[in-house]
Amino acid sequence: MRSLPPIATRRTAAGLACALLAGAVYTAPASAAAPAGTPPAGGTHRAVERDGLALTPPMGFNNWNSTHCRADFNEAMVKGIADIFVSRGLKEAGYEYVNLDDCWALPQRDADGKLVADPVRFPGGIKAVADYVHSKGLKFGIYTSAGTRTCDRLGFPGGLGHEYSDARQFADWGVDYLKYDNCSNQGVDARKRYTTMRDALEATGRPIVFSICEWGESKPWEWASDVGHLWRTTGDINDSWGSTLSILKKNLPLHAYAGPGNWNDPDMLEVGNGGMTDTEYRTQFSMWSVMAAPLLIGSDLRRADAKTFEILGNREVIAVDQDPLGRQGKVVGSDGGRWVVAKEMADGSRAVALFNESDRPQRIATTATDVGMPHARGYRMRDLWKHTDTSIAGTVAATVPAHGTVLIRLFADSDWASYPPALEAGQSQAWFVQAGAPAEVTTTVTNLGRRKAKWVWVALAGPAGWDIAPTSPAARQALPAGKTLTTTWSVKAPSGTRPGTYDVTLSAAYLSPDGAGRVQEQPLAASVVVRPPDGTSYLSDTPWLSASNGWGPVEKDRSVGESGAGDGGPISIDGLRYAKGLGVHAPSVVEYYLGAECSSFTATVGLDDESGTRGTTAFEVWADGRKVTATEVLDNAAPAQRLSADVTGADIVRLVVTDGGDGITYDHADWADATLNC
Asked: Is 236 among the catalytic positions?
């Protein structure tokens, strides 16, 4: 089940620390040992009893997300990835499998019914590629489908009815991992199809990890624990925030089914493919690790930048994913898009993800006991992206960037007092700035530790040319435990600054009780906004605050095309074309700044005719966090619906499109003739 689209600089406050602090910045060594603990006994999984494979989530590479079936998927690529695993330290970090996806074979079997490798892509044959991968100390994986044909539009031979022959070929080639897709399945029961291939693989006598790629349609987590080692829980991911978020939400509730030898698989990593920000890629990597998901790199590492390798190579985050206890993280809270997910670790610690689903920074907070830690006077808190240790009294809190994740590990460490107190730095609310006009904003710095912080100073830095100055005290001689330094600032973006969200950094410098100096930098954000014009205006003529889509970008005055901007067609609902509007693909969120100057919103909504008879969506309108109108679930048989909403006094309006509960395939939705009256 695949859609196949083609694939500021700022000033820093580093000088503040140099002028303020004589001591060096305190950073605990990355090798600091965690205190020992005794985790509760875990469940027993039949897959472990059967073969002992995949005792931790598989890590490796799969080419599909970066190449699909293009010509650059070939022997040279696969060997190049194996070389990079070794040369760039990814093998040492735990990445093990180099896996082929669809299009490796010829479209037809040979006269004996055997699979034949494409001689152009793989002139040396599959065994030669597997041997090369093995020579690097790595393992090799391959792909086919539990149907008569594979999923690519060309339809390569599938395994249905050929399970034992194909499994024997795979074993003879040296395959260590099989991804078994779900296309062209002829309506045969999924459990029967996947169990037959399991038996065929076992009959070869070769240990082969079995990845069930059934898209979650028959809930394999409920029946496949003795069939496969991992199972897809959703349809295919794509390189967009909407897709990643949708899949994340579907996978999180399935924690009870995960454990050694049995893993929920939310699909491959998109890190480095270019469709999301580094913040969003860090979120995917963090949340996949907290969910104990397989970590299969989906980008072409031959073209990857340094930031991609930095994310994929974070060994402290990988350690969360690969923890031998094998627990998937559980949701502690998710109110307002502020997610807290806690994962029990084998040493008794907890990995805690503070994940911000929303489109602007939010404070997310929990407590040590809420995430499962025992009562203690103090705790050690390690930030797994900043690689620093601090101490807290019990509150875990951070201002998390839009679409970002703060990932920490919490220890009941008897030596907690030897670490500096944690300072929580953030902004009290969203910041909206009109270019050329000063705006007043507020920052806070709170001591989360049990000991006071000395000589606390803060600085705020924005993009070059921005005028930022404090209008209230920006320093305190001492900040006791639990107390907050609140500072107001005048922030002015230069005239002519384009609407959008801009990075702003809050730096807090302080001395810990033992005199060690420390600087903490907190990324924040300010949105440069344009007030809507008086009268009635089309939203497609108004700059949005933010926009996200399940496939492709949000389109103005066109339907969504699933790939690049402008690739859609005319907006058309129920046979009627509209010249103005927004084309989106569920799940989608588009936000506009109103500045309390508007009174009403109207639009005609429905599924675009280009979806044919497929697709289901629902439309919602939110004003300042309050749902003001919505439709029921619509399909393509439903006529266009007129939506009207009272948005009087609202600063922000959010246009939300959700899928109808059956996945996001073909969910092309339109906000036709969307207008504001201001």
From this structure: yes
